[in-house]
What we know:
Tetracycline Repressor, domain 2, Arc Repressor Mutant, subunit A, mainly alpha
Amino acid sequence: MRREQLIEAAARLFAERGVAETPVSEIVSSAGVAQGTFYLYFPSKTDVVNAVVERLSQRIVTRVVAYAEEPGVGAIPKLLRIRDALLSAVADDRDLLAFFHRAGNEAYHDRVSRDTVRGIVPALEEVIEQGCAEGVFRISHSDDAARFLAALMDVTDPFDVFAQPERLEHHLEALTEFALRGLGCSQTTLEETLSNHTARK
């Protein structure tokens, strides 16, 4: 409980001020614990930074895995939900992700991206294999396809998209079309999926 309080306080302060500008004394003050308590859980400020990064990545991975394992849902709807879950995760932790996204914070950003991609690849592979079994995907190497798909999602700059809301639907449609074509969807399935996406706008 205390550990989570400290991580939550650190995440909030890092998003507001940055890591270098946030001393341990302010983290413990914000968390409402004694400074000695901090060192029971974290030997240094670097360790709490690492914990913030790990928690952020794990939140994203947990959402993706939940959608991938949802029973009674087809592979394509699962992929669309995963896509939306990744965007939602950005919206929910936008301030902290924006901090990690700034120039000079590349190491933090890269670690969040690396840990997230590594965590979601097995879930994506499972969904791709399901799609192949359903006959909606036609691809020979689901493991490599999952890595490519995770990388595709990772290179998308969500802050650029959110900065231009009018581009969001166009961006999602383009991303969906590119991914489904790469997974070997038939033209008919692709058109039906995109048509359903447009109908929900």
